[in-house]
Each structure stands twice: as structure tokens, then as C-alpha cells.
Amino acid sequence: MLLSRRIRAALLATASSAVSVSLLAASAPSPVAPRGIGDRLFPHLGNPGYDVTAYDISLRYRGDNSKPLDAVTVVKARATDHLKQINLDFTQGKVRSVEVNGARARFASTGEDLVVTPARPVFQGSPLRITVRHTSDPAGKADGGWVRTGDGLAMANQADAAHRVFPGNDHPSDKAYFTFRITAPKQLTAVANGLPTGRRAGAKSTTWTYRTHHPMATELAQVSIGRSAVLHRKGPHGLPVRDVVPSKDRKKLEPWLKKTPGQIAWMEKKVGRYPFETYGVLAADATTGFALETQTLSLFERRLFTQPEYPSWYVDSIMVHELAHQWFGNSVTPRTWSDLWLNEGHATWYEALYAEERAKQPLQKRMKQAYRLSDRWRAAGGPPAAPKAPEPGQKISLFRPVVYDGSALVLYALRQEIGHAAFERLERAWVRRHVDSTATTADFTRLASGIAGRDLSTFFKAWLYGKKTPPMPGHPDWKADAPKAKGKPGTRTVTPAHSHGAPGHSHGHAGHSHGHAG
Predict the structure, then answer these.
(1) What are the pLDDT digits (tens) for 214-228?
(2) Which of 7, 266, 482, 517 is least surrounded by Cβ atoms within 10 Å, i.e. has the fewest?
């Protein structure tokens, strides 16, 4: 994810107070309390006691993106504990009813949790089917979730905003398969993650159905509804490439869209076969300040592709950043949010490598500049694998420079330490070993040590957890600037590629005017 310069500046300002939204709830026994799985950065995110296997989400959009959508979310799971109550992450919507395994259940809201009390307890190991009838409100003043576009809606759920759209276990450690059923006025087009499995046209509306072929973290869910053109082409090995753009812009955006198959082929040469069933670009008519790697359909602002001040190599590199996330972050997902550097560091690495190979933008120059700023970034945001918590009410403030170029710098140091050949074997082994799964920083450290043939724990401890940036292997002359005084955080810009303020990066690339969101 990459953030715009405007967004990054706002994140450095005083955090705004969180907006609380209550749910319409039936009576339930007290006490009810929010629960979480204890993530260091988001302690109340996720819920213990069950493992989600699939979501089936039905949405009815009536053509006004300022009004709530009617929705039904079915959560299929397996109980990992004996459950008398079940917590789901959900806020910014009204709950009408809840059923657990076919029987009506009581429910109440607390914090950002929906607490469900089934008619009878659910035993450990039992299947669990939770049906929630609710609304999904795009008009709330929340930090993420629905994005209102010029002609409809899209989603941007990173870091913890999927539960502002649908109830679930909103933590990346619990990946699941998704089915989306979207009903919209007949003049509109609905697209979601995965591949289409059905389309049923009525007199005034059409229902579109999509399913993912691989498990997905909730933060990566995507639904686009609008006056859209869906453009199809073939990628490597016959991969279906599907782009979704405003109908009026299809010709204008085609020069950019046709580059995607070549970018996929380039990534495959670096790390191996593309991991999903389809890929494509979603160009949204919206101002978000970032781009986001939603699984199989990356979200970009349309103006990234239409504003002439962005050099073509810069736009290309941003496209590759979000594409690289399909391997690093989507297929191999961080088990905790402290492992975010594995996502953003790798996506930034391949973005920069692509710019070097295809546009003669030197990687070493960019890394030297990142090294110069690295101590400032660590002081402001914490070390790469132990980032500081986001500002209250501003969850995307987690996406600071240290997780972008500051983390790509760790990968550059690792390549310097173990050599190019071993580094390339590590990258391929990493995405192959953890495909469709979750992984941690400790997993990466162990794998790197095994491939290098020596214990790298001391190296990683210094580079990932140190307050100061260690000496760069092979470049003893590189120097880091001293951190600025408190209250004067260092700039995030590091190279021309990161200095344009391009609208549409994930959550804040070091130096992208856009801001990667992921």
C-alpha cells in the first residue's frame, strides 16, 4: 500500500478522536465484552475460539452510494474452543438478526465487536455457521472500509476496516475463501475478488456472483460497483487478466493496462509462478491518497494514470508494487501486523528493482538515500519488525516510511550479506513454502539462515529490531543522519519515484507522493 504526500502529512498531525458507531442490538446476557487475539498493534482485532473457513457475503446496492446497503453475511467456521458466546468484528452497520447453526441467537454490540449468544453452546471441533442480516453503511466517518467513487463504490479495508463493511474475524492470521453476491441496478457493473461464477439479470437489477479460488485475508476483500468497463486479456500461461475501469476512460487507460501481462511475467522470473486465478487493475474514480493490493484486483486512483506530471516509469513501478503484493502479503500473509515489513519491504524492493531494470533508476542510489534517512525513520516509527502502534483514529499511520524503503533497505543489506544467488533462492523458497498461508518474521529468519548455510539471527536482530541502523555490508562509508528532535519527524521522500505525490499508493510508500496502501 502506498500513501500520498497529503495523507502522510495528515498522519503526522494530531490524531483525530475515534468515531464510535453502535449497532442495533437485541437483548443479550451481560456482561459482553470485546475480545481480540492479542495482536501487539491491534489488541482487540480478531477473535479467539474459532477458525473461519469461508465467507458468503450478499450485498444489495440500490444506486445511491450515500445510503446503506442491505446485506447478509454467512460465516462458516470450525470451533476451536467450547463457545457459549461468539465475538465477531463488526461496526458501522445495523444488525437485524443473527442465526447460529440455523437457530436464532441473541446479540449485542460492544466496542467494535458483535457478541453473539447462540441458543445452545457450540462444542470444540464442531462446525459453525453464523448468518448475520445487517446493513453495510458507506457514509460513516470511519478509517477505511467502503470508498465512495464518482459512480458507485469500492473497498479499501487495510489495515483493520473490513469489519466496517461485513462481520467477520478481521485479522490477517485467519484467511478464508470468499463468495460475493452483489445485486445492483442493471445499468451498473459489479466486480469482486476471484472469478465470476454467475450473473442473473432481472427487470431492474442484476446479481453478480464471484468466488475466490484461494484463501484471503479480510483486509484484501474488494467489491467494485459502478459504470464500469471490464477489459479482458491473457497473461503468462493463459492467466485471465481482468481490468475494471470507468467506462468513459477505457481508451485513455489502455496504454497502461496492456502493460500488466509483461509485469506479471517479470515478477514470475524473479520469484516464480503467479499465485492466484486472475489479476487486474481496478481504476477507481476516487481520491484516496493510496493504492491497495486487494487480492486479484489491485485498487488504484484513476488519476495516477491520467495526470501527465507522473513519469511513466514511476507509474509502472507503482503498478509493480501492488502486483508484487500478490506474492508478498496476499499469498504469503503476515501472521501479525508487526510482520508488516515482510509485505511492504518486499513490494518496495521489487518496485525499485523494476525501476532499475526497466527505467535505469539505480537501486543502489535509492538504498543509499534510504540508509541516510533510516535512523530518522526508526526514531519516528520504530524498527521495521517492531513498528510503533498507529495513531488513535488513524490506522493507516501504521504505514510509515520505515515499513517501505526502511524495510527494503533490510532486504538490500541481506543481499549484500549472503550474495545475490542465495538471496534469489530465498525469495523463491519463501513464496513457495508459505503459499496460501501465513508466516512470521521468525519464519523468514530461519529460512534465510538455512539457505545461507549459517545462523543469521544476529544480523536480523540488528536490522529488524535495532533503534539504530547497522553498518551496511559492503558499504562502510554509508552514513545515517541523526534523528531530528521530537516533534520534527523526518521526511519520507527518498527518490524521485517517491516524490511525486502520486495519488494511489497503498498505505504509504517511502517517498511516494501516492502512498502505497500495501
Answers:
(1) 999 999 999 999 999
(2) 482
